[in-house]
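ok so i was messing around last nite and threw this chain in just to see what happens. nothing serious, just curious
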Amino acid sequence: MKESNYALRSEQSRGRKFPEPSHPYRNDYQRDRDRIVHSRAFRRLEDKTQVFTTRFSDHFRNRLTHTLEVTQISRTIARRMGLDEDLVEALALVHDVGHPPFGHSGERTLDHIMQTFGERFDHNLHALRIVEFFEQRYAGFAGLNLTFEVREGIIKHSRDYSEAEFPELSEYLLDQRPPLEAQLIDRSDEIAYYTADLDDGFEAKLWGLDSLREQLRLFDEFLRPVERQYPQAVHKLQFNETLKRILNSLATDLMENSLARLEQHQITTVEQVRRHPERLIGFSPEVKCEATRLREFLYQNLYQNSAFAAEKEQGEQVIQGLFSFYMDQPEKMPRWYSGQAEQGPRHRIVCDYIAGMTDHYIQKLHQELLGGPSVVAPSSVMGYTQP
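result:
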């Protein structure tokens, strides 16, 4: 589909903080994409938890594989909606670089620690600091010098920020909605983790076909025709076929409902998108209800599963222990970080340093510096065995 007028094209970009000459055969969003892919923060996603705190199998998602799945889903939808695919791809690839080790439990731990200093940990804002400051690749400037639109999308793709509460973000048009390309990332992320977490939970034998169909009407709706078409297929293949159809259904509803809303509100320009009182990319009411049920199922049966309580607690102890250690001995951090800790709030630099670590590296450091045990996956409570 041809790009629509409400697509935010690279020639409309507000540019970079540090002006650079244009590239002969890559537009600015494509250059942003390439800088993200070649960054250290992007590479670290391979050893950062998605859901399962420790990767005791190569078949489970990590932050990198999740990011690639979000990229695939969002680009497919962007093409159908006539959005700028290059901007969508760059935003999808960078959207999770601010996540700390140990998944959401690690994020909650850092946030709890930072609250004791009157601050918060926000992975979107940490991602912005990574691309603006912590990535050191170029002699002419700190960070990756990404376009305004990618930096804006990093912080605004999943939530709104008020200028009163976050005055340091005032340049990012906080009184306006993000462009459609950024709005799309949050919903594509939702589709990706709903379906991927169902898949990983099935692989880990946390649930089977019967329990899924009993608790999820959407799953039963798509499983029944699969059973009629493939009655002799093993349960895993029936599950795969069902999940494929659920993903397709969610993605199709998202693009069709979003296109209908754009037509309903007569949205034809980026400025209209920005000035609209609410976000325009979203599911239909019916599918939104089904997505909510999916999320509730995953929270009850996966994210809050008691089988993971011990490893989450160990991960929290690792983060808390290293945080206290570096607050007392900031000189033990790498020279660049220790130097920053002398110039700015120590707790913020320590937090940012820890948040950038991978699961493997933080455990290695904790063991070396504090002699603590490693975080071990609860494989004994799962039926999964890697072939």
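not much to say yet. The chain has a mean pLDDT of 93.
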